[in-house]
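name: query_chain
kind: protein
chains: 1
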Amino acid sequence: MASVETAAEHERILREIESTDTNCIGPTLR
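structure:
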């Protein structure tokens, strides 16, 4: 159970980071 919850948390964190990086870096590069 713990490993499954950890995997879900990692996916959420990675998605949040990707969206944040895209929003922050996207406009800067453009």
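note: The chain has a mean pLDDT of 77.
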